[in-house]
Amino acid sequence: AEGLEMARGKAMCVADEPEAFADAILQLVENGPQRRALSDAAFEFAAAWNAETDEAFASVLATALSGHAAD
User: Fold this and answer.
1) What pLDDT, on the 0 to 100 scale, is given for residue 26?
2) What is the DSSP string of 4-55?
3) Fewer CB within 10 Å: C terminus or N terminus of the chain?
4) What's the pLDDT at 32?
5) Is residue 29 a contact partner of residue 35, using CB atoms and an 8 Å limit?
């Protein structure tokens, strides 16, 4: 989850050991409200991440195309 520290524990399950990850998943299986909250947070995080990535890609593409058009 390197680079995704801001989502750790809020929008994703992260654990250093397999047993800890399994425990976190079991907790979600058994706790519907917690599972829904994590799902909602993950969706919001992914949407924001995609928007930022799209903006960055559009900027790089526009720069590349403007340089290419000058040729």
Assistant:
1) 95
2) -GGGBTTTB---SSHHHHHHHHHHHHH-HHHHHHHHHHHHHHHHHHHHHHHH
3) C
4) 94
5) yes
Contact (Cβ atoms closer than 8 angstroms) between residue 24 and residue 13 = yes
Tokens for 16?
């250093």
Q: For residue 29, give the amino acid letter.
A: V
Neighbour-count burial for 45-60, b at 16+ CB within 10 Å, e otherwise: beeeeeeeeeeeeeee
User: For every one of its 71 residues, what pLDDT tens digit does the chain have, with 9 covering 90 and above?
Assistant: 445 555 555 667 778 899 999 998 999 999 999 999 989 988 888 888 788 788 888 888 888 888 766 55
